[in-house]
Design brief:
With 322 residues, the protein is of the alpha/beta class. It has 13 helices and 10 strands. Helix 6 (174-195) packs antiparallel against helix 8 (206-224), helix 6 (174-195) runs parallel beside helix 11 and helix 8 (206-224) crosses helix 10 (246-263).
Length: 322
Amino acid sequence: MRFVVLGAGALGTIIAAYLARTSEEVILIARGDRARHLTEYGVTITGLEDFTVNIKIVDRPDQLSSTDVLILATKTYDTAAAISAVQHMKVETVFSIQNGVIKNSQLSDAFGEEVALGAVGMIGGSVLADGVANYMMDYPILLGELKGGTSERVEHIITELQNARLNASAVDDIQSEEWSKFVGWLGLSGLAVLTRTETWKFLAEPETARVAARIMRETAQLALAQDITLKPGPPWELQVVTEKSEDEVVEMLVRRGRAQRESAPNFRQSMLQDIDKGKQIEVEETFGFAVSEGRRLGIAIPTVETCYRILSGTNKLLIDQT
């Protein structure tokens, strides 16, 4: 099975490197200095495992004509340009591991709904200053058909990912999984930028955990208003978020923070990693989308909107400086 991974940030690099150890052919599309570095030094992974693998690096997508599986791993604000660069290709299956929940419609519009899969990527990692991808958390990659259920192609891709020693599973309701991640991700990302600390620290502190709880509870209402079921159980215990008191949600988040202090003490949210590097952040496609959905559905989400205003302003300052 041929895989093309579009985007050489942390998640794209990690997935491509693991697949390259077992799959027949893996191509990683990268740009500029990143492409030159990976071509010269190979793709190096540290953290949960340490290894270096040579992968075919392509910096001109127009050189590619087809692939069995295309994995979109760019930042959300680069989606339109990324899709445009590969839309000429014959693609059998495409899915995105980006943050947010608008990616599936973008892929369906570009490649056809029958080609696109829903996906959740919860890998935790970062690209270090020396170009190495640090793999810190092996939370799963989840795949499912957009209309619900799994399929032979989903199971085949999951087998390839598992054979590569990536944590991956097929799921029956991918929309539920995507919104469940979105609820948790929004709750963490805003606080990560506002506090500028590792994730466990602001979760383990009750005052900042309370803000995260309010973001999650507000975002969850957007899903429930559209009859989207949110996933109970770990990692976010969303039945607690939606059914229990705010104080009980805070207690749950504090416990999560203390547990993460032991399992991933150095992990920083992807949005904070971008801020650390002075890069643009994924705010319009995530917080901005939530605000738009709140207005469309007539649901007040004041904490989310406040965070959006702060993050959007911060993002504009970053863009002006680059």
